[in-house]
Batch of 4 targets.
Target 1
Amino acid sequence: MQTVAASVILDDAYRLIGWDADQLDTREKGDARMALSLALQELWEEWWWDELMVCVKRQCARTYSSATTYAAGDFVYFPATDKYYQCLQAATGEDPEEWDGNNYDLNASYWIEAAATWEGEDYNDIDSPAALEAGDVVRYTDGNYYAWLGNSVTNAMLVASAGAAFINGTYDYTGQVNGRNAYARTTQTIQWNGSQWIIEAAGLTYYSSSDDVATPDLVTTWTGSPSPLPTVTSTEGTVPTPETAGYWCPLTEFHPTLPYTVAGTDYETVADVRKIARFDPRCTATPDEFDFHLTADGVRICDLDLGRPWVWSRRPTPVLTGAPFDEDTDYEATDPQDLVFDS
């Protein structure tokens, strides 16, 4: 393709319409550049000119890096398997798949292979945490899907029937106090003070027991007021709900979408796309094309079953609306379509 200075095109255009460039004011020159820009766009988009096309493999998410810290919900592309993955919990240096010498195995505590739709057993059908493995997917009562992180479940304590109604509820494990497990919910606590199990709220003791047992669910006799006295039971065998932090990650449907621009990469801006295919469409008779459509976020690819398809697209049409170049002006990096022309 021959490169021609913008000023040459402008001067020729002025002569063709009988204008004297030296007699044109700034507004008239601006109008002329706009008219030329529109004419250029019409010609540019008239055909898939080879010189204006770019055909490269592109991907729909950032490439995974072991040096990057990922948060739950992040999507990455993993070149070793040519697949996309969703991060399930904060991870640094946790590869989506790990090589065992013969095969890649999914790092299911941190990643799950991305999917456009999810399927899983109903949450209420899970008998206990022991029935779950890291990466298992369930459908919760809210209609959403969640992946089990595989973290160990620490039993909570369920207080019921207490005359002080605000004492009732689920108390989560918070650590050790005086050598025994302690539990809490908002301002209420259950803990061993060295000689008694006590149930407190905002620092005031409401119920206590001198039963010297390992955990409060083993207490047989509570004292205190108001009546009736509480019952304390363990949630052992109960599957934590998705609302309980540290056990589940909500899953997001992944629809492969090529962003129109990818900052920090060598990819050119995607303008008009001619084909998206499994094989290079420029040199393959049957490139195995994928259907696609345009969205506000980018080019969405239908039924993509590989990581990096070939994308054959037209470079964006330059917009010739810039002002004449001024050597005394300080210019800043900007969109490549925002041009100045030489004069």
Target 2
Amino acid sequence: MVRIAWFAFVAIALCSVIGRAQVTSWETIDSIGTHVYYDIDCADADHCIIAGVQEGTISIVRSTTDGGNTWTIAYADSARLTAPPFYVPPIYHQIAQPTRSRWFVIGDSGIVLRTTDAGSTWQRQQLGDPTQLLYGISMLDSMNGIIGSMPQSVYRTTDGGNVWRALQLPDSMRSFTINDIALPTLNTVIVMMAEGDTWVTVRSDDAGATWAIYPGAPNMLRLHFIDSLEGWAVGVDRDTNSYKGKDVVYHTTTGGRVWDLQLHKKIEPSYGLFDVDFVDRLNGIAVGGVAKILRTTDGGTTWVPQQNTLNRNAIPSIPAVAFPSLDRALAVSVFGIVLRWANPAADLEALLSRRLIGLGANYPNPVTTYTMIPYEIPSAGVMSLKVYDVKGSEVAMLSSGPSVAGFYTVELDGSTLPAGTYTYVLKHNGATLSKQMVITK
């Protein structure tokens, strides 16, 4: 409940701080004062879902199929977690919409809701015992995903949520609490955990069979990874005895093994960052307390405050953002408000012209058996990913043919190649990138 309590406090109890509005406007496209929203996710620019509470008594899931112009209640849960006179509804903390029709909703008492037909019918599941708080979901695709449960449980599905299997975290993590999780590839599981002032990144590269522990990014609330190696984490470095503090953004290009500080400053109003989403390696949006929205177009090197229509006198925290395409993003306020940002045509053209193919470092490297190579395709076209030996001879074709924009990871079986240094080359629509790997025996 840490994150929800933080939003509620900032939204209700603090005094307003009026910051200077800057560049690029977000518009209010939906507002229902009796609603409280906690999370938003989008399958694409038109299809999105929201989790929240209606009138303080009914937990709901709302959906749109037209980019937020119209919304419908796809699910309403009147269940109660305690006996009268409390009538506390189960709160859905996070959601995932990997496809237009398949949605996942997680919350209190180990509840998992799942639909495979865009909300027409729902299946309700129970993970663990009813005291568990599910607090983090990451769906790689419609079949593969993970769920985090406070304090330290992780569940995985490989069949679209029919079965969730518990993963065994290291025994040394038993006193730590999960803050967020990520599943950037089939075999890569990343868990951000904390105990007091100690933060760690717990990572598995074999689908949870074994784990490695690395120093974490302090004061982080949410993670976002675009592949197995590159990701961001956002949060707040609080002042002593205060809910105010510095906005914090960390960046990793090593899959969480090392985190580099990108942002650590007070950007008024200074109540921290609660969520972050990147549409590619350059373009991201972070949101937080008191109507704060920050945008980057250079991978997080710089963050620019964004103007929006929220009334800061009401202290409207923004707990979640979805950035499904370069021309559109949506965010939700705890006061039942949905915001939408539409990129101006001139800005969109400039951003599209800057998008480049991306080729990540393979891991592990050196290679003894299998290694994973992450890459990014910015637009439709024709691509190839090949491996060459030191003589320039092609020794492996990893991918080739028509391309669709997106982030990908391909596996190379290094055991079939002699020991030595190899170069892997990505080509797409005339652009070329290359990196080297070493195969050992």
Target 3
Amino acid sequence: MLLWWLRYGRKIAIAPQKNNSKPKTKIPINQHTKKDMKLNTTLILAAASLSIGSLQAATVIWTGADNNVFNQVNNWSEGGVPGVGTGAVDLVNDLFVISNGDTVSGTSPSFNMNLKSGLTINGGSTLSLTASNWTKILNGSTMTVDNGTYVRDSGNRLEIDGSSLVAKNNAVITGTFATSTNTTGLLNVKVSSTVTISGDSVFTFDYYQIDSTSVVNFTGAGTMVGSLNAVGGTTTWESYYALGRLKFDNANPVGLFSDNFSTTGTVGTVGYTLTAVPEPSSTALLGLGGLALILRRCK
């Protein structure tokens, strides 16, 4: 029996089992089905691309192709005017740059700018807006004036709302207004915004209205000229300093107000002036530099 098992039974035990399950039926795909699948895939990819593109801000460059008129669509690389209103194209999500040294003017028709990606004026360029309108910097963006000039006239408003205004390298930001109230024709800094001044830049406005949550930050020498009408009743820069809203390099300065800043003119008038005093460390470095120059000449 053992011999029989070793000869025949072992072969039976290890014989392969038949698979009695039915094979899966393949669904035929014709040419029309393939075309429909390709079309659907293309539409999905296109929709995704448009969705991503709409979230990305473009950079719109001033070219001055036709003339120096700000609200002329052919003068901008994207063929649109930054802002809303007459003659404007809805490009408020884009960053607008004037950097070719032109003097750009905006007169009529009246137009407003609600910019959500900011505005840059540099390279010795000037933007002078004389129409009755406003510029609003929104959405955490930045308006930068770097070795450039920004001018507003005729009862205009520059408003920084939850965003930043940066002036550096001898920048000039100025507003000469026809009105004499603190509700129009002013620099309005509101909702946790920051104004940063450096490189002997100068702000000159009839009125500054600064929210109690916002900051004026100096990173070097600079000047602000105009009546201060801050939210919360703060009308002097000394009071603003006491609230911790005047800073050097985004830090609270050490010492008294007079150790870091000086004021001239009469409080509440357009001639009221705030000037940043160089920090002691900066002053010491300047002194050492001067001493080194004298010693070098003596040799």
Target 4
Amino acid sequence: MKKFFTALLAVMLLGTVPVFASESDSDLVSVLPSTLPARMYLSDNPGTLSVSGEGRVKVMPDMALLNIGTTITGETTAVQQESVKVMEKVIAAIKDSGVAEADIKTTSYSLSPRYNYEVMRRDGTYDIVGYSMTHMLEVTVRDIDAVGTVLSNATEAGGT
């Protein structure tokens, strides 16, 4: 009987919902699914109550996370310097759109060779024909109405 009242108290703390149970220690206490999708089990261990449940909340977004970047390709590793110049313009455009510097972070920065796969060397390798530099940012836009402006300004500055 003590376990039943402990379970009932726990349900009341979670919210007022109808509960069905019996006095037996092994019975399942079930909350009506139409009221709250949760279940409680009375444990064989004294003083133990296990609860599992699910909750959902629907709200209007108040911020956005944008992934903005640049990819520059060229014949030499000078693409890295060109990428830095373009990204500086993109970051300036994002800041000019009202985004704080603390809300802009680099998530990826990579320089990769590009190969000519049409002709294989005798040693089984391919010729490098250029390089590709990718620099990606994650931008947190805290004014949801400014998302379009941030994206437009970033793409006009060279971002994708």
